[in-house]
Amino acid sequence: MKKILIVAYIGVIAIIACTPKASPTATDAIIPLATEVSTSQETINAGQVIFTTKCTKCHKAKDKAVASQTYEELRPVLASMSKKARLSSEEVKQVSAYVFENAKK
Fold first, then answer.
1. How many domains does the chain have?
2. Which of 17, 49, 65, 100 is deepest in the core (most CB within 10 A)?
């Protein structure tokens, strides 16, 4: 009986780990395109606060990772992480503005 439960548990974990994270269509619906990102300093500052408080709850700050990738490369990551962090649409726009401002150009 224990073997069956262990195999079932491993199977569930494997299925969860192999599910697609964020499809391009989902990313486009959630994360603004580079042309739609706010450049307001107020929005960028609000995004920085959210980034440093909510994103660092689960892992270290990823400032260097943000700076080493373009905004387009980071959009799928933003889509996936914003769902996990349960960000509102306004918070997504703010974090996107912060990431856009600090991403590699």
1. 1
2. 100
